[in-house]
Design a protein that fits this description.
The chain is built from five helices and no strands. By secondary structure, it is mainly α. The two termini are about 20 Å apart. This is DUF805 domain-containing protein.
């Protein structure tokens, strides 16, 4: 399992080409979460504001983005779709924050921005769910325009364990 993490971080650090199977993406995500929690705990124990967690986050940002691109490639989608989704989420989040700050500061009435905040929240939630579904979708069988099927190498996929 840890081999998937090592493959993403050390072998494919900034490789945005090709395809990544579900197990590669999700094991990287799992170990990334574990290491993030550990580094946050160390930072908290040492009372550091900018410490190991920040350094770790910066170190794995590029490989995390690259494996997400390759995961989308595995289902036949462009990795740039991820950038578009993230930009839409950032814009919607900015609308929600701006509306909240405007209402709190008295610049505008809270009622006037309520519908905008609700719409922005629904858009962010919908995009997050759609992205999650894409990351969980089984990859294209055989070669697609982004490269050969990563399952064709004969290695075992976690989704096939116990299936006959």
């Amino acid at each position: 399992m840890f081999n998937w993490y090592k493959k993403v971080v050390f072998e494919n650090y900034a490789n945005f080409n090709g395809r990544a199977r579900r197990s590669e993406y999700w094991y990287f995500t799992l170990f990334n979460l574990i290491f993030s929690v550990i580094t946050m705990a160390i930072d908290k124990a040492l009372n550091l504001e900018i410490g190991l967690n920040t350094v770790y986050g910066l170190a794995v940002f590029i490989p995390g983005l690259a494996v997400a691109f390759r995961r989308l490639h595995d289902i036949g989608k462009s990795g740039w779709l991820l950038v578009i989704i993230y930009l839409a989420m950032i814009i919607c989040a900015a609308v929600m924050v701006g509306a909240s700050l405007s209402a709190l500061s008295g610049v505008a009435s809270p009622e006037g921005f309520g519908i905008g905040v609700i719409i922005a929240g629904v858009v962010v939630f919908g995009l997050a769910i759609w992205l999650l579904v894409m990351f969980c979708t089984n990859g294209d069988v055989g070669e697609n325009k982004y490269g050969p099927d990563p399952k064709a190498d004969g290695s075992e996929d976690i989704s096939q364990i116990g299936v006959e």
